[in-house]
Design a protein that fits this description.
Length: about 350
């Protein structure tokens, strides 16, 4: 039966998209990671990888080599056969493409192409992922992508038991690699009018409503909205309370077990948006930072009292317009220094 055009488009949504708008989803026996492509650095390698993945070339193969917190290597089609002798691991799917060396550095998360040792222009279907920076490989191997989600899984694969030549004691299976549209960062290009919103923040001690003020700090409002709506803040802790001053929270490592989040790919430092005319008084919501004025990222604080020494030095981006009684509840909590003696969380 011939499919109507609309159905065809829905079944194959990524076929007509350029590689820069796509990403690979690598499902392994130890978890899932995703990586985006760099077609401007290695167009042929990107095209070949996408074509192979769409045909199921990698499904059932494995990561057969690992260096703890160094690299992981996989994609050899010979590993689809669980009886392939170890002396042949890593020998399949090579000598298919010339090298395409660029200025792309082999940094943490970079995905690059395996070639035959000491034989330039012998690239193929196998690939490796850098768990840490590998400067000696720069200009020697063809980098064509970068992990944007799931580096914890890549690290886990790198730490499996290995033996001679770094071969894994048991291959880590690549169950499948699919090609999907690249995830779009929420609010990245949202106009100011779309940022004029109030959000509900649920906490252990009750709910507060924060009215965001994009006229004060549009980039900080975008960042906060993005992290709030993707659920990034859920399960993070309020780790610091100074009575009559601030309640601070929103750091990823305070999430239970330090668990990563799918929105980690969009966490970045923010340039300060300081205003002398916005006063840090009770109910104001502002972004924490380090000594660098442009080091704010995710952690924010709720003002419990006036602090004029923060004005013009920290980025205020909203105000509490409902639930001010929750601030009273925070101030009644028992503390060990500045740390709450019980767990206080942002909850879904």
């Amino acid at each position: 039966m011939r499919l109507p055009l609309l159905a065809t488009v829905l079944l194959f949504p990524a076929l007509g998209q350029p590689p820069a708008e796509l990403e690979a989803v690598v499902t392994t026996s130890l978890g899932v990671f995703r990586f985006e492509f760099a077609p401007d650095k290695a167009p042929k390698h990107v095209d070949e990888f996408i074509a192979r993945a769409r045909k199921g070339f990698y499904d059932g193969s494995a990561f057969h080599r690992a260096i703890a917190n160094g690299i992981i290597q996989g994609g050899d089609p010979l590993l689809k056969n669980p009886k392939t002798p170890k002396n042949l691991w890593g020998t399949g799917g090579l000598n298919l493409l010339p090298g395409n060396y660029s200025d792309m550095k082999h940094e943490r998360g970079v995905v690059s192409t395996v070639r035959i040792p000491a034989k330039p222009n012998s690239d193929g279907a196998q690939f490796f992922v850098c768990v840490s920076a590998q400067p000696p490989l720069d200009g020697q191997f063809t980098a064509f992508g970068r992990v944007n989600e799931g580096m914890g899984v890549v690290e886990k694969i790198s730490e499996v038991p290995t033996g001679e030549n770094g071969f894994t004691a048991t291959p880590v299976r690549i169950q499948k690699i699919t090609i999907e549209p690249r995830k779009i960062e929420p609010y990245l290009d949202a106009p100011i009018d779309q940022l004029r919103r109030a959000v509900k923040l649920n906490t252990t001690l009750g709910a507060i409503e924060i009215t965001l003020e994009p006229d004060w700090a549009p980039y900080h409002v975008r960042a906060f909205l993005k992290l709030h709506e993707t659920g990034w803040y859920a399960d993070t802790a309020f780790h610091r309370i100074i009575k009559d001053f601030v309640v601070q929270g929103g750091m990823g490592h305070t999430r239970t077990g330090g668990a990563p989040h799918t929105a980690d790919r969009w966490v970045r430092k923010l340039k300060g948006e300081f205003r002398d005319d916005v006063k840090h008084v009770r109910g104001i919501v502002s972004m924490a930072r380090g000594d660098d004025p442009d080091s704010a990222a995710t952690s924010f604080f709720l003002m419990l009292g006036p602090a004029p020494h923060l004005d013009g030095k920290y980025t205020a981006f909203g105000r509490i317009t409902a639930g001010l009684e929750v601030l009273d509840a925070f101030e009644k909590e028992e503390l060990d220094g500045e740390t709450p003696t019980r767990e206080l969380k942002i909850v879904p």
